[in-house]
Structures are given as structure tokens and as C-alpha cells.
């Protein structure tokens, strides 16, 4: 597979370039919006805060928090997507294939319909629980049988669990139409209106999973060569698959719990990362984190201007960006099998 950065020195240079891209996207996210703030004022707000300055207050209380949350969510979804594509050996795999979004949404609608829950913070914990339950169910169903956990079985299990939760969710929304209004913005996916109080409770899960993924690069490289080869090299394949799956649940589940359903980041970013550094997951994972964070930050900036003075949910913006890419990947995969 051809990739742009073939030598280690080029990969290091590319990684530095991704860091600079992320820094630029972060600054744009803090500076741009309905109230444009000059970059100099942004720096002053960060390093020389004046509590009487309205622009400084906007930067520190709203824009900075939003940019941090978008960065964390974008990185998490991108890493989760990369892990999913490695685990299933499917270039179209994304966290959605685990039924994580569907499970989270079902638990949200269930709590809103039968327990009248209407707090965004409560939704966060309920969604995290739903995402975790969906992930465990998919792993359990994908592991049943003589062959154990296989790529095709986990794909089929994810599709079945997603369809099940979506059907239940639609049934409940028909029963209680008021629930639609209370969760509509969450369903679309957004980092607007979120605060650090929503991120901090699930951040330890995200950080723990993110740190673990940094040590999964070499085992995943071996696993990608096939289960038989991996076992021949002494790798405990079942353990690696379980750890990888749990990392996906914590990363994607935590992201869905905080920001709702944001699609396509987990699908397209791993392809971009592999196009830069090749199939070596020791590089794919950190590159995916930086590119995913940058992409979601830039998508969030664009979402602020599309229908000003209102904002478009960033989940809609990522869908607009990702749908053509999805079609391209699907067509390329089909053409290779013709």
C-alpha cells in the first residue's frame, strides 16, 4: 500500500505537521464564531486574562471549553474507528458497527419515555451505559460458536444489535412523541452547549483507553497478519481482541455520551492516517488522534457559519463531509473485487 511518509524521518516530520494543524484548528475554534475575536485577543485571554473584558470571558468560559471537548471527541472517535477497522479487517468499519450509537440512543429514549429524564448530564451517564451494554452484547454474540471471535461474526453481531436497538427506539418514539423534542439535538450530535462538568466524569475512562491504545500498535500489526500467524508468534489473540474492543467501547461510548451521535470521523480519519503513514498501527493511532481532533474542530467551526445566526449540529457537518468519502471507499472496495 502506497503512503506519503515512507521513512521514519518523514513520519516524524508529518507528525509535527499534524500537531501544527491541530494547534491552528484549535485557535480557529476559539477565535471564530458569531462574535469574531482577533487572535491577539485570544492569546491575551489565555495568558493575560482580564475579567472585565467581554471577549476574554467568551474565550475562557465558552470557546475554550468547546474546543477542548471537540478535540477530545474527535481524537477518541478517530482512534476507535482505526481500532474497529483493524479488529474487523473491514475498511468500512466504524464505531457504529458495534451498535454503540444505537445502544446509547435506545437507553436515552427509554429513560426519557418511561422515567421522564430530561437532564443533559443524566443523558450523558445513561448514554455511556447504553454504549457499554451494546458493546458487550456485540462481543458476546461475536464470540459465540466454535471459531470464537471472528471479523465476520462481529460485523454481523454489530449489525444485528444496531437493528434491534433502532427498532426499539423507533417504537418508543412513536409512543411518546414529546421524547423526540427532548433528545433531538443530542441525536444530531453537537459539541455546543456542552461543558467540562459533562466531560470530566467520563474523561478518566477515555484517557485510560487512549493510553492503552498507544501500546496496542505492535500487537495489532501482528493480529492484522491473521489469527494463525499471530498465534504462531505467541500472541494471545483473544486477549488482544477483548482489550481492543473495550478500548472502542470506552472511547466511542464516552464520546457519544458527551456529544451525541457524530458520524464519519471514525470512518474517514483512519484512511487518511494510513494514506500518510501506511498500515503500521504504531503510527496510525497517534496520527488518527491528531487528524480526528483537527477535523472535528474545523467541522465545528464551519457549522457555526453555514446557517448563521443559528448553528448547524456538527454531526450534520461531518455527515456532509464523510458521505462522499464513504461512497468513494465503498466503490474502490467493490472495484477491487470485480
UniProtKB/TrEMBL annotation:
Classification via Pfam families: FecCD
Top-level taxon: Bacteria
Sorted UniProt keywords: Cell membrane, Membrane, Transmembrane, Transmembrane helix, Transport
InterPro entries, per the entry: ABC_BtuC-like (IPR037294), ABC_transptr_permease_BtuC (IPR000522)
Matches recorded under CDD domains: TM_ABC_iron-siderophores_like
Transmembrane segments annotated in the record for this chain: 67-86, 98-117, 123-142, 154-175, 198-217, 238-269, 281-302, 314-331
A Gene Ontology cellular-component term: plasma membrane
GO biological process, one term: siderophore-iron import into cell
Localization terms from the record: Cell membrane
Record membrane topology: Multi-pass membrane protein
MF terms in GO: transmembrane transporter activity
Family note: Belongs to the binding-protein-dependent transport system permease family. FecCD subfamily.
Protein name as it appears in the record: Iron-siderophore ABC transporter permease
Phylogenetic classification of the source organism: Bacteria, Bacillati, Bacillota, Bacilli, Bacillales
Amino acid at each position: 500500500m502506497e503512503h506519503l511518509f515512507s521513512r521514519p524521518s518523514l513520519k516524524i516530520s508529518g507528525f509535527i505537521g499534524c500537531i501544527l494543524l491541530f494547534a491552528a484548528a484549535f485557535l480557529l475554534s476559539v477565535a471564530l464564531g458569531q462574535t469574531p475575536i482577533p487572535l491577539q485577543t485570544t492569546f491575551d485571554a489565555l495568558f493575560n486574562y482580564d475579567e472585565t473584558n467581554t471577549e476574554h470571558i467568551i474565550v475562557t468560559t465558552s470557546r475554550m471549553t468547546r474546543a477542548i471537548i471537540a478535540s477530545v471527541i474527535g481524537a477518541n472517535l478517530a482512534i476507535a474507528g482505526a481500532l474497529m477497522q483493524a479488529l474487523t479487517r473491514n475498511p468500512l468499519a466504524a464505531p457504529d458497527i458495534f451498535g454503540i450509537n444505537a445502544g446509547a440512543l435506545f437507553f436515552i429514549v427509554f429513560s426519557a419515555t418511561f422515567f421522564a429524564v430530561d437532564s443533559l448530564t443524566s443523558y450523558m451517564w445513561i448514554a455511556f451505559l447504553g454504549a457499554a451494554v451494546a458493546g458487550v452484547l456485540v462481543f458476546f454474540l461475536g464470540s459465540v460458536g466454535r471459531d470464537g471471535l471472528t471479523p465476520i461474526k462481529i460485523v454481523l453481531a454489530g449489525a444485528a444489535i444496531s437493528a434491534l436497538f433502532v427498532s426499539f427506539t423507533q417504537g418508543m418514539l412513536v409512543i411518546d412523541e414529546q421524547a423526540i423534542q427532548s433528545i433531538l439535538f443530542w441525536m444530531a450530535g453537537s459539541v455546543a452547549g456542552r461543558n467540562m462538568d459533562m466531560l470530566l466524569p467520563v474523561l478518566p475512562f477515555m484517557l485510560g483507553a487512549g493510553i492503552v491504545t498507544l501500546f496496542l500498535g505492535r500487537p495489532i500489526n501482528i493480529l492484522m497478519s491473521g489469527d494463525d500467524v499471530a498465534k504462531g508468534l505467541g500472541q494471545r489473540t483473544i486477549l488482544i481482541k477483548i482489550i481492543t474492543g473495550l478500548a472502542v467501547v470506552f472511547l466511542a461510548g464516552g464520546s457519544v455520551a458527551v456529544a451525541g451521535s457524530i458520524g464519519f470521523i471514525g470512518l474517514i480519519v483512519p484512511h487518511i492516517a494510513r494514506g500518510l503513514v501506511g498500515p503500521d498501527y504504531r503510527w496510525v493511532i497517534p496520527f488518527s488522534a491528531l487528524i480526528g481532533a483537527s477535523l472535528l474542530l474545523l467541522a465545528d467551526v464551519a457549522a457555526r457559519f453555514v446557517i448563521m445566526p443559528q448553528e448547524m449540529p456538527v454531526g450534520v457537518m461531518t455527515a456532509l463531509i464523510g458521505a462522499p468519502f464513504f461512497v468513494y471507499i465503498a466503490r474502490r472496495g467493490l472495484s477491487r473485487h470485480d
